[in-house]
Amino acid sequence: MKKIVSFALAAVMVCAMSISVCAAPMAPGRLLPGEYTNNAVLSGLWLETNDFVPVSSGVGDCTIEGQEKSGMTADLFHVFPNYTGTAQSVAAAHGSTIVCAFGVKLPPLLSGGRVVLHVKDGFDMPSDIVAVSMHGEKFNTIAVEKVNDRQIALNLKASDNQIYIFQGGNLAAGTEETYKDCLGWK
Q1: Integer Cα distance of 165 and 146 in angstroms
Q2: CA 66 → CA 63, 69, 157, distances in Å?
Q3: How far apart are CA 61 and CA 77, in angstroms?
Q4: Model pLDDT, residue 46
Q5: What Cα–Cα distance (Å) separates residue 40 from each residue in 30, 60, 112, 163, 184?
Q6: Is the Cβ–Cβ distance between 41 and 54 less than 8 Å?
Q7: Burial (CB count within 10 angstroms: exposed 0-12, middle 13-18, buried 19+), residue 107
Q8: pLDDT 10s digit of each residue in the chain, 186 long?
Q9: CB 176 within 8 A of CB 148
């Protein structure tokens, strides 16, 4: 019995150590200020820019059409790093700069909703921005609504999980383009 308990405890410890190692920053020298205290600082470790604007928390208020308040929240997290290099290339191809990036997950069973994001204190979101949702073979753009000085809102579908906010350039809301067409991939 002691051997079984010892083996089970050892297995739990190995799993716990693996999870803590996986959660460690991949590039600690490139962290944004506030990264350690804000786990939803939006992928500053992959984006090398001085004008990166983080949102303030790990949740965004989520409503569906016809509702003012719902009590639901969307979860915010780091973008998947495999998309970041592609997003930087897309931004460069369209003359834009990435100023914010985050992963988002709508509440279960929602096919879409309006997510309100709170811009972190000390940062200002630029005015000429568009949200870009990265998908498997293509990306689409989403209009960004400025709610007030500290909040922006996006109307997202459940499939819009990897969001990059582009400033400037020639991308308009409602655009859908494949990476192949945009970047000339063969």
Answers
A1: 13
A2: 8, 9, 16
A3: 14
A4: 40
A5: 16, 11, 21, 13, 33
A6: yes
A7: middle
A8: 778 877 777 777 766 555 444 444 444 444 444 433 333 344 444 444 456 676 655 567 787 777 777 678 788 877 777 787 888 899 999 999 888 888 888 888 888 888 888 887 777 788 889 999 998 889 999 999 988 888 888 999 999 988 999 988 898 899 899 999 998 887
A9: no
Taking the C-alpha atoms of residue 80 and residue 58, their distance in angstroms, rounded to an integer, is 16
Q: Given the structure tokens 């997950």, which residue do they identify?
A: 105
How confident is the model at residue 31, as a pLDDT?
40
Please tell me the predicted confidence (pLDDT) of residue 147: 87
β-bridge mates for residue 130, sequence order: 166
Nearest residue to 70 via CA among 102, 115, 103: 115
Count other Cβ atoms within 10 Å, centred on residue 154: 21
* 59-63/112-118 β-pairing: antiparallel
What the block records as the tokens of 185 is 């991939």
CA angle 133, 174, 160 (to 5 degrees): 25
Domain boundary assignment for the chain: 30-183
Residues 6+ apart with CB under 8 A from 111: 157, 158
